[in-house]
Amino acid sequence: GRRRRKRRRRRRRRRGAMAAAAAGAFSLREVLDAFRRCVTEQREVLLEPYLSGWRGLIRFLQSLGAVFSFISRDAVAKVALLESHLQHHHFQSLQGLVQHELAAGPAALRARSDSGCRTVLRLHRALRWLQLFLEGLRSGEPRTSVLCTDAYNASLAQHHPWVVRKAATVAFCALPSRDAFLEIMNVGTAEEAVAMLGEAIPYIGDVYGITQELFAQHKLLDLP
């Protein structure tokens, strides 16, 4: 009986996530499911669920309004670029993509501004910022502007020119409260949102860690 109840609950959750997705609203559950499906037993990062997770995160950024548009616009462009790479080459995994592009030689890879590796690297840096920010939201610091600035300074800031950094920190001051953020998660009460963040963040962290290691191994972390 317990197993059946669990299955029913899972089905209900999935239906809820699908309804939220259809409505174009952000759903933390959908992001959690995508990143959970991302990593195979062989520790490969599957690109289909990775992009699906990113589409959810973009909805999250967009639901916060203009504050994050400088990041969400870039993420939208990068996701579209990766999708077209996938259609042309039918890569399953991030590892397959890296191998394919490295086969042309490091110099050729560095010369291409639209390479899959460079595109993933830009998303990878933004993912780190989101991971840190979501961790902060979960931990309970009430001042979201502080949380967001700290997460930004520890991740994306070092890759942005001064003008963008300045604009970002000013924009973060206009962020809604922690409660408003937890409501945007679309998973029920604040407690439920915090619990789901606790579930989602390790999956996001896992994908981030594998990507970081892969790119470090092939000296791709500083692609121009």
Can you offer a commentary on this structure?
This protein is mainly alpha-helical and 224 residues long. The chain has one domain (26-218): Orthogonal Bundle (Glycolipid transfer protein, GLTP), CATH 1.10.3520. It has helices at residues 2-22, 28-38, 47-63, 69-89, 94-102, 106-111, 116-139, 144-153, 162-172, 178-184, 190-217. α4 packs across α7 and α7 packs antiparallel against α11 (190-217). It is globular, with a radius of gyration of 18 Å.
Low-confidence segments: 13-23
Number of domains: 1
What is the CA-based Rg, rounded? 18 Å
Hey, roughly how much beta strand do the residues contain? under 5%
User: CATH first level: which class?
Assistant: Mainly Alpha
**Which class do the helix and strand fractions yield?**
mainly alpha
Q: Name the helix and strand elements from N-terminus to C-terminus, one letter apiece.
A: HHHHHHHHHHH
Helical percentage: over 70%
| CATH superfamily placement | Glycolipid transfer protein
| Major pleated sheet | none
Number of helices: 11
At CATH level 2, the architecture is Orthogonal Bundle
Characterize the overall form.
globular
Number of strands: 0
The average pLDDT score comes to 85
CATH topology: Glycolipid transfer protein, GLTP
Q: What distance lies between the first and last C-alpha atoms, to the nearest angstrom?
A: 56 Å
